[in-house]
């Protein structure tokens, strides 16, 4: 194998495929980056079996070949080389010579035979969606996936297309996040994508108005983002029937400035450091939300003006759950709906009907 | 106690005095910030006994008093308040009420009686030095103080004034850093300042061309930086006679571009990961420095042009020691002097004679 490419391009390729490489792996080859020569580019690949990322880097190919090279060391070296042309050529004794200006590295490489292929998806229908739109969908939902492995299906985000509407839904037993977008698709779909995959996809997405393409087979999902392919295992099993657990009724509805509420909750939660729950209390009455919290160190009272419709309610929450939600929402004013101090609250945008968040309250000892 | 001040000013004061507060302390009061009302300002103080920092914050005083308040909680709260006027007033049950717009915090405070006073320095002569100059002196030397406590005096930087020249010197048994500045002072001085103190002083110094003032008594040093006073214990004992260990003779002198050499050493050291020593080898001959390193993963060769005068030398170093030095130097071209593969190397600026760095080589097994 022998090729030449620009340092800048190679660094970008390395950074992309490294998102699939976990570091220590029982299979040595998975700690490496797979490199194969193409016509006018090299194909780079990183994989942890569940998630594989493949990308192309423009190169002049002098001799065909393929190798696997230690991801961390290779990445560190290439990043520190001068911003110039880099030449890579395999030598005797399973080494590769990396040359750039006055630098020469000789690294051991691994046999590429054992490196896993990219799972085949087949010629299914492809869903097109704008990169920035999809990134926002991920950001708006993936924070709510379950972190513990007791119910694996909840560690993923539901990707559901019904009648040209894409719903993405995550829930962890304490809160639920759902966001929807119109989609030009003729097929209905319902799959569960691992939260980890979406977080890596999100890092590769640009904030450009360009299309990415999504396709599936029974076990895998393929994202095609410009020069890059990301293939991930899907989670197996049925997602929770989320529609049946979101209440549609309420006894109190109020409108509030999102940033103002978030800042007040954040301050109040400074006081709420007993254990990990960060408990804060809300009293909604007389067109204001009174947020309070007590601990052995003192107490806090925050007042936020709201415009309310319905009965006064006293309710307590884990501050983090509210903050996570308020942070990813995008409208200046939001609407919160409640029924009682022991029923879930619904949070949604005041103008666009494109998201729904549900947060369970904490029952107060009386 | 009752006063009002701007959030912005209070945050600045808190950040300044927190530099002396270590967090957990066997004396609860030292986990707190001391606040005392003055005429048109409050006096804030943080201390870990060895190091105390006092600063003033412009305030309207309504009622005199003094308290100690938990540093971390108080800092977190004030930083998150809106950028507006904050009012603080002591209430019953040893609590203080902090109000700002629609936020109210009630915090427990501690008795201020037990908080240590700032050590008195007395009316000694004060040495004036520009803030940016002193910051640069610290940066150029303090990295070389010893990290282990086996010889406590080496955990400090020598501050020596002789014939209107200030020499600051640090050494740890493997390398030495020395930098000098002209100083308008009539008194000769020789004290050893803890490296930790200088690092905190450095964070408080601005990059402005303003004077700071330094004075001493037998056990303490006082830095006066605008509204802030920093008092630190001095290290007791005699510093090593550094002049006698710096060689003045050499057999090889070469001039080299500092950035080029640093980048090459940094790349070469990527390969040198056996243990913590990061060993690299230098061959200086035929007007070039050949930098090499080997490990189980491969090898590297870097070539840096130099202009040399004297005999060719082969020598090995811990890459980190060279990099630490090259990073803090400021001239584009530097001069390195060597005598043999087992003698210390001297590194200095090529134009200004204001610094001297010494690095011990690593003996190569033959």
Could you give a short description of this structure?
Chains A, B: Belongs to the beta sliding clamp family. The structure is a homodimer of 366-residue chains. By secondary structure, the first copy, chain A, is α+β, with helices and mostly antiparallel strands.
User: What CATH first level of the largest domain in chain A would be assigned?
Assistant: Alpha Beta
Structural class by helix and strand composition of chain A: alpha+beta
CATH architecture of the largest domain in chain A: Roll
The biggest beta sheet of chain A reads: 9 strands, antiparallel
What percentage of amino acids of chain A are in beta strands? 35-45%
The average pLDDT of chain A is 95
Radius of gyration of chain A: 25 Å
Here the CATH topology of the largest domain in chain A equals DNA Polymerase III, Chain A, domain 2
Pfam families (chains A, B): DNA_pol3_beta, DNA_pol3_beta_2, DNA_pol3_beta_3
Domain DNA polymerase III beta sliding clamp N-terminal (chains A, B): 1-119
GO molecular function, one term (chains A, B): DNA-directed DNA polymerase activity
Domain DNA polymerase III beta sliding clamp central (chains A, B): 129-239
Write the SSE topology.
2 copies of one chain form a homodimer.
Chain A: E1 2-6, H1 7-18, E2 32-37, E3 41-47, E4 51-58, E5 60-63, E6 66-70, H2 71-80, E7 85-91, E8 95-100, E9 103-108, E10 127-130, H3 131-141, E11 156-162, E12 165-171, E13 175-182, E14 189-194, H4 195-204, E15 211-216, E16 220-225, E17 228-233, H5 242-245, E18 252-257, H6 258-271, E19 279-285, E20 288-295, E21 298-305, E22 307-310, E23 313-318, H7 319-328, E24 333-338, E25 345-349, E26 355-359
Antiparallel strand pairs in A: 1-5, 1-7, 2-3, 2-6, 3-4, 4-17, 7-8, 8-9, 10-15, 11-12, 11-14, 12-13, 13-26, 15-16, 16-17, 18-22, 18-24, 19-20, 19-23, 20-21, 24-25, 25-26
Helix pairs in contact in A: 1-2, 3-4, 6-7
């Amino acid at each position: 194998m022998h090729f030449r490419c620009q340092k800048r391009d190679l660094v970008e390729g390395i950074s992309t495929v490294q998102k699939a490489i976990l570091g220590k792996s029982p299979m040595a080859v998975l700690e490496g980056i797979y490199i194969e020569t193409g016509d006018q580019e090299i194909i780079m690949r990183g994989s942890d079996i569940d998630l594989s990322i493949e990308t192309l880097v423009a190169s002049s190919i002098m001799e065909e070949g393929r190798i696997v090279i230690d991801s961390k060391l290779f990445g560190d070296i290439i990043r520190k080389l001068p911003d110039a042309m880099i030449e890579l050529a395999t030598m005797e004794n399973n080494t590769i010579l990396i040359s750039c200006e006055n630098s020469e590295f000789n690294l051991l490489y691994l046999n590429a035979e054992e490196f896993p292929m990219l799972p085949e998806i087949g010629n299914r229908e492809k869903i097109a969606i704008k990169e920035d739109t999809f990134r926002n969908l991920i950001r708006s939902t993936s924070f709510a996936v379950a972190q513990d492995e007791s119910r694996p299906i909840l560690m993923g985000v539901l990707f559901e297309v019904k009648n040209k509407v894409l719903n993405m839904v995550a829930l962890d037993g304490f809160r639920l996040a759902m966001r929807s977008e119109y989609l030009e698709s003729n097929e209905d779909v319902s799959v569960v994508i691992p939260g980890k995959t979406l977080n890596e996809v999100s890092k590769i997405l640009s904030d450009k108005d360009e299309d990415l393409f999504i396709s599936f087979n029974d076990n895998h999902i393929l994202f095609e983002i410009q020069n890059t392919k990301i293939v991930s295992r899907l989670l197996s099993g049925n997602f929770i029937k989320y529609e049946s657990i979101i209440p549609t009724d309420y006894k109190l509805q109020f409108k509030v400035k999102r940033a103002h509420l978030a800042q007040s909750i954040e301050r109040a939660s400074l006081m709420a450091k007993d254990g990990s729950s960060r408990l804060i209390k809300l009293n909604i009455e007389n067109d204001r939300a009174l947020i309070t919290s007590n601990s052995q160190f003192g107490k806090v009272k925050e007042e936020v003006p709201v415009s309310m419709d319905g009965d006064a309610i006293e309710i307590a929450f884990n501050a983090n759950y509210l903050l996570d939600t308020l942070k990813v929402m995008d409208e200046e004013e939001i609407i919160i709906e409640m029924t009682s101090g022991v029923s879930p609250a619904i949070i949604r945008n005041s103008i666009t009907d494109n998201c729904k968040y549900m947060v369970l309250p904490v029952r107060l000892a009386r």
